[in-house]
Amino acid sequence: MSVFPLDLDQAAQHLMQDYPPAHELHLQFESWKVRLKTNSKELVDDLADYYGPFVAQAQESHVTVHAFETEPLNLDWDWTRKTPDPGKTKIKEAWVNLKGGRAVRKLITGMTFLFGGDYHLAVGPCVKNSNQIINFINNRHIQWHLEKGCLLGHAAGVSFEDKGLALAGFSGAGKSTLALHIMSLGAHFVSNDRLMVENKADETLMYGVAKLPRINPGTALNNPDLASVMPAEDKERFSKLPTKELWDLEHKYDAHIDECFGPGKFHLSAPMNGLFILHWTHSGEPMEIRRVNPDERRDLLAAFMKTTGLFYLPPQGDEEKDPPAEVYVEGLKKVAVYELFGGVDFAKAAELGMRFLKTGDVK
């Protein structure tokens, strides 16, 4: 396998010949449709369980993703290691541009992703790393929206009837936790960590990705609707921990929306009427909220802006760069933006979020 050429088409032909994809899974994310082809029945079963309500009957698709279950490829290419994101130190990815596309290698798992044009290929121990296959499929969905002119936001999203609210915050602020608290008050789920924002003449829309929220033990213990995600032995063990230690735990559970909140609660689009930016701390102070102008609060806007990363390839001929802050300011012109500051208070924030979804205001 180390003799693959730096040519996406030729590499794809080699892989399809060596690992014939005999199994399929069809998914539909509102109007976007994807077909997975793989040599692993186990992977199909795992992804069908994960995606649940988005599994569809066989149909024409926008994208076909091939996932080849095999040992990690040993590709003798001149890889460039990706600089870690701010605040991170571990180098997890390397990449190289190919004729016709790009290859990204996950340095920890050994998974390799090759994509460009009509090719979307995942190669390596796929079943063991099905979460990376999920991310790859969702990244294809994100690319489709960005090519239609959307902005990429780092936010969760919820909706109620004809209104939607995005939730952003710097790392660890609890946007997914807050989204689930608002759901417990009757809202629908739109997205966990990424939103694609479309600024139309008369309204702003937000689109989500089919990624289940990954919650920590503190979130599960403090929301009765999430009790089922935590095994009984974990519940007994973690409930004895101090609050600070509990929230700092690096232990996650996938929260299946339909299982926790009932069927039909995961919607992938909604109007984007508001944006809460979580700028709070575990200080014990009262939580406060105020409406802000994102053009004047670029420090807060940075929590919502999201770089596209290695898995986005701009359309042929376009320059590869992320939109500046000015573009986000323009994109949020019709959105009411609020800063939540002071102490962390999910119950109060959820109440305000639901009030906004029902009335269009937080008063």
TrEMBL record:
GO terms for molecular function: kinase activity. Keywords: Kinase, Transferase. It comes from the Bacteria. InterPro entries: HprK-rel_B (IPR027597), P-loop_NTPase (IPR027417). This is HprK-related kinase B. It comes from Desulfatibacillum alkenivorans DSM 16219.
